[in-house]
Batch of 3 targets.
Target 1
Amino acid sequence: MLTIIAAIATNNALGKNNDLIWHLPADLKRFKKVTLGHHVIMGRKTFESLGKPLPNRTTIIISRNPDYHVEGCIVVNSLPNAIKAASADDNPFILGGAEIYSQAMKHADLLDLTLVHQVFEGDAFFPEIDLEVWTMTKRVDFKADEVNQYDYSFVQYKKK
């Protein structure tokens, strides 16, 4: 099983200037719980926005630069090679960014999304979800509160 995990705005915005646009502690807590102990696959820019490997996860970075190396991480030159590098994990996660998400849509079995019910200005966007290919299997809605400033939903789609 290969899972794409992302937090996206109503207009599919993912981020701006290689950073998150919003801060939702409930999403970050869930992201950590779901991905802990797994392989996480991401592009170089996404990795550099994080600044370091995520603890207790095997980090796989996709970079076209053959000289790019990060201690404690696996660096590969393509998404197919990243998926191969994660083959020991029964459920690796794709963490982005936008270009990696677009490539991964045809490989993924599951979309695990946090939908932030707000429109944001962004420069990176999640690909459109083709409902001919994907079926929503789970949705839990939450209202903004004193800690999470936007309404949001945890949504899963499974490939048909």
Note: The chain has one domain: 3-159.
Target 2
Amino acid sequence: MLGLNLVAFTAFAADATVAHPHRGVVTAYHGAPPAVALSAADLSTLASGSVLLKQQQVASGGRGVAMMDIKAAPAQIWSKILDYGHYPQMVDRVSECGNYRVSGEHIFTRFVLSVLGTEVEYFIDHTSRPHLGYLTWTLDYARKSDLDDSVGYWRVTPQASSPAVTRLEYSVDIRFTGYVPGFVADMISKKGLTDATSWVKRESERR
């Protein structure tokens, strides 16, 4: 393993002063994400406390969805998801994070991921609708990100059959630019779905 003194951080082409090269190459969500059908076996997996991974069909193809039941109220879960300023303390590999503009439902957030000496910077436009149970996002195409594109959502649903439990859904579709080395892309995407739901569960159930 490399010693910290041997690691020099590599930054790429992100630039908040210029526009992204395009306005989106991944199908974005307009309104609430489509519902995910669950079988009896799926419900059993969720009841056991495990992460359930499913596939969702969208115009651009299949998209992974992670689901998990959390023993916390929806308001508690949303308080963690929306606490971007504390992501570096809560979320692995996030070294910097913070909002740079809020306009109505839109929350614009800068993220920096640090992976084995490489920093990946990107800018997200969140459409936040917790009162409707979901939040969606795309890149902020007014700023140039190291990611080629990113689209996804969080959904938080109270469970009438178990008032102490809330169901969390997370999905993200990331496209990488040539600036991001393959090993960095693999590390970011390979465990992304499972890791995302796991940190929210950990932080939301913490007393």
Note: The first strand starts at residue 52 and ends at 58.
Target 3
Amino acid sequence: MHITILSPTIFESASILNYLEQNFALESGSYTKNELTVSLSVCGVGLVNTAIHTSSLMDRPSDLFILIGLAGAFDQKYKLGDVVSVTEERFADLGAEDQDGSLLSVHDLNLINKDKPPFKDGKLINPTAAEFSFLPTAKSLSVNKVSGSLSSIALMRKKYDGDIENMEGAAFFQVCLQHRKKFLQLRSISNYVEPRNKDNWKIEEALQSLSKVVISMLDNLSGAA
């Protein structure tokens, strides 16, 4: 089995790289152990970088593509440090702002048919997620600018029924769906979506949780004792 893991930044996958270097054999730029081969790459922050990088990997003979990273949660049904499997994504701020300040999506504007594949009612849904049911699930909103004020948070919550927010997922989903690839997106909750206050963030704890989940998954797939 060949798995390709992407992360927006190197620090989100540093511990996983260290694990691979210590436990797998490096062969032609990938890491191999028993019947498992793992490729690791940094896609860059944001939707454009992610779309470009993910598209460049679609000819790779990979059985599963996994995007990993941090995310903010809209409410406290998730604890900081929880790792979730994202089942659906939306391009949450792609569209227009109306006169009253409300959000108009590209589907509201009839610029993209909300049910034209790979969209279903304006959503990008991952059919592969059901095959890996070892984590709690989340519906995600992908944005170019993370929400950091009460007004922008209220607009996003009024418009969409999202559990978490990130900056890459929808692009990754769309590319994988259009190329009919199997994929997962795993996100660790580093903060709540609230008026921006980095003192409340738990980045290191979230990174540790994310690495633990991914390493456990690789251990199981490689048949490690």
Note: The chain has one domain: 2-222.
